[in-house]
Write a structure and sequence with these properties.
0% of the residues lie in helices and 51% in strands. The chain is mainly beta. The strands form four sheets. It has a five-stranded mixed sheet with strand order 7-10-5-14-12, with no helix packed on it. Strands 8-9-6-11-13 form a five-stranded antiparallel sheet, with no helix packed on it. A hairpin with a 5-residue loop joins strand 8 and strand 9. The protein starts with a strand and ends with a strand. The mean pLDDT is 81.
Length: 179
């Protein structure tokens, strides 16, 4: 007479998803009867990384207010955003769509940790978006009314088809010029 040990697991994990198990074992000394095991694949959120740089060469030494707000709007829920240690903040705002305002104070900070794989790179503000329905699109725009500042970004203001577990980046540059 032996005993049966039974455990149910998924053999192949789909990229971008995490499997949760409910009532799936291991069952030791299982004899006669039935049980139900539920496996659920949950989509990992996508991470959107946003950075800000100021080009002050055209300021001619005049003081420049380097506070900036970038609005990120998604086609799905904003799950979380992370503030930076330099005073930059993010906060979910009340708008018609799913959006968050990222407030920047000057340039994004630079990673100055020795031997870090990202040493010398800008540290982004991170926004996590829900990807349960796949194919998420985010748009980004700086809220800026100063005509002496030209705003550009390296993502065209839109990132499309973000899948579960993906990450995407958009860097903004504000170039100051006075006439």
């Amino acid at each position: 007479n032996g005993s049966l040990v039974c455990e149910i697991t998924e053999t192949t994990q789909t990229e971008g998803y995490v499997t949760s198990y409910e009532n799936c074992g291991p069952y030791v000394n299982w004899t006669i009867g039935e049980w139900t095991c539920a496996l659920t694949n949950v989509a990992k959120p996508a991470t959107i990384n946003v950075t800000k740089v100021w080009n002050l060469e055209g300021a001619g030494g005049d003081p420049v207010d380097q506070n900036a707000t970038i609005r990120l709007t998604a086609t799905t829920d904003i799950l979380a955003c992370a503030d930076d240690s330099d005073g930059s903040t993010c906060a979910v705002v009340d708008c018609d769509d799913y959006c968050v305002d990222l407030d920047f104070v000057g340039d994004s900070p630079t990673d100055d940790t020795p031997n870090s794989p990202t040493f010398g790179e800008l540290i982004p503000q991170k926004v996590l978006v829900d990807t349960n329905f796949g194919g998420v699109t985010v748009s980004l725009a700086e809220i800026n009314s100063n005509s002496a500042i030209e705003v550009t970004n390296d993502c065209g203001g839109v990132i499309e088809d973000i899948e579960p577990g993906d990450s995407a980046s958009c860097g903004f540059t504000n170039t100051v010029f006075f006439e």
